[in-house]
Structure prediction request, 199 residues.
Amino acid sequence: MIRDFWQAVKGRRTYYSLAKESQIGEERLRSIIENAVLHTPTAFNSQSGRVLVVTGAQQNALWDIVEAALRKIVPADAFGPTEEKIAAFRKAYGSVLFFEDQDVVKGLQEKFPLYKDNFPIWSQQASGMLQFVVWTALEEVGFGASLQHYGALIEEEVRQRWSLPESWSLIAQMPFGKPEAKPGEKEFQSLDGRVRFSN
Prediction:
C-alpha cells in the first residue's frame, strides 16, 4: 500500500551509498517499472519512454562501461574521486536506464509539423516525469537511488551490449539499492518569489 501521496513525494531523496541488496522480488520490481512506463503521461500520448533495468553481472558491466569511458577523458592523476564515485554506483543492486525513442519523436514531428520544434522538448519532459515516478516508487519499497547522466558518453556501447535499437536515445541512469546511510538534511529556498497566485 502506497503512503499518502505527499509523504511519498517528500520521502524521495538522493542516496549515493547503496548496497547490492533488494527487499523485494524480481516480479515486484518488474511490476513497478512496467506500471511507471504504462501510466506516466506523455505529450500526444506518444509513449516514447523506453527503459532497461540491469541487475547482477549486468549492473557491474554497466558501470565498467562508464568507468572505461571516463578514463579516456579524465586525467589519470585526477581519476581517484571519479573511480570512487563509479565504484559506489557499481555497488548498487541495479540500475534503471531511461531512453527516449527518437523514431516516435520524429514520427510525431512529421505528423504534426506545426509542433515540430516542441516534440523533442516534450519528450525530455516526459522522460523527467518517468524518472520521478520510478524514483519515488522505488523509494516506497525501500530502495535508495540517485540520478546520473552519462548518456552521450556511453550510449553507443550500451546499445551494442544490450542489443537496443539505434533509435533509443539514452537520457539518464538511476542506480538503486538498499540505503547504507541516511541522506543529508535538505535545505529549501523561500517560496517567496518562487510561487505566485493570481485571481
